[in-house]
């Protein structure tokens, strides 16, 4: 894994931990708590598009912040409004 991937994972986790909402990343049939850095390391090894599910009191702010980090690191993400 490259240092840029490591930096992305750390930044995603740190950003997620600023929010009270539940933030879950979906890739194929896997669902990972974005606040878990270990879960991110095992999931973000594969290139692809990820789906982001956010629920909670600060969900809108969390969605935008996580999306911004993915875009910054040139990773594909789709925010799911469910």
From TrEMBL:
InterPro entries in the record: HPr-like, HPr-like_sf
Superkingdom of this protein's organism: Bacteria
Residues spanning the membrane: none
A Pfam family it matches: PTS-HPr
SUPFAM superfamilies in UniProt: HPr-like
Sequence ranges assigned to domain HPr in this UniProt record: 11-70
Protein's name according to its UniProt entry: HPr family phosphocarrier protein
Organism (species): Paenibacillus psychroresistens
